[in-house]
Amino acid sequence: MSHAAPAPVLTIDGPSGSGKGTISALVAEHLGWRLLDSGALYRAVGYAAGMAGLDLSDVDAVTRCAQATKIHFRAASDGSQTRVIVNGHDATDELRTETAGAAASAIASMPSVREALVALQLGFRKAPGLVADGRDMGTVIFPDAAYKVFLTASAAERAKRRYKQLKEKGLSVTLGGLQREIEARDSRDASRAVAPLKPAEDAVLVDTTGMGIDEVVAKVLAVVQP
Ligand code: C5P
Questions:
Q1: Is 142 touching ligand 1 by the criterion CB < 6 Å?
Q2: How confident is the model at residue 78 (pLDDT cuts 50, 70, 90)?
């Protein structure tokens, strides 16, 4: 009996505000592949830990929380943003805030929390293929992926994009404050001991500073369909 080859994977890693979320969703739609937003998993655990009143530096408690938290993605019926359901509650809006991002980054530095989320992430790899968006998709979770991209953009441009996104959602933020928060989060993500933010050796680097969405999507698609 022959074993079917594992479904192909395209990993898209990079710092916050590099456009990963938007680009990954568009590329997955174009290819007809599934999408894994791994950042949402870390945000969901940080959120669940906060809701349970846990101290975010308590590794044992946060690890138990990561193991117990039930996270589901539900496609919106009208084709808009996928909803993230955490322990039965639609937490999509709460998860997008920079506070949730900072909580995610804090708990994501714990190896036991990362370990608790591995099986869930591997489970997304199904035919016809998977687009995996995150920080360590090409280096740790899917090192054998056939296609790997690392998206970057200048810190100023990334802060501007996040500012626009959050403003559109009606949140009150300042550009300077956001840039400082993003830089602090990236420096923690890049300097942590486990699964730091860095390009896989075989990743194609794409600097999206000054590029439009369509142009970036075309560049990423060209990695899969040269
Ligand atoms: O991508 P997003 O901004 O939603 O990620 C939130 C945080 O989750 C990141 O700052 C990072 O600390 C963590 N993360 C991670 N590994 C991933 C995805 C996200 O450590 N694969």
A1: no
A2: confident
Give the Å distances, CA to CA, from 48 to 51, 71, 81, 194.
5, 10, 21, 22
Give the predicted TM-score (pTM) of the model.
0.92
Taking residue 125's Cβ as centre, other Cβ atoms within 10 Å add up to: 18
Q: Compute, in angstroms, the gap from residue 51 CA to the centroid of ligand 1.
A: 19
Contact 141, 38 (CB under 8 A): yes
Could you count the other beta carbons within 10 Å of the beta carbon of residue 88?
Answer: 8
Distance (Å) from CA 186 to ligand 1 centroid: 9
Average pLDDT score over residue span 133-146: 97
CB of residue 135 inside a 6 A radius of ligand 1: yes
- Locate tokens 């050796």: which residue? 201
The answer, yes or no, to whether residue 2 has pLDDT greater than 70, is no
Instruction: Give the closest residue (by CA) to ligand 1 atom 16.
Output: 135
Distance 197 CA to ligand 1 centre (A): 9
For the chain, domains (ranges, CATH) are: 8-33+128-226 (3.40.50.300), 39-126 (3.40.50.300)
Our answer on whether the CB atom of 182 is closer than 6 Å to any ligand 1 atom is: no
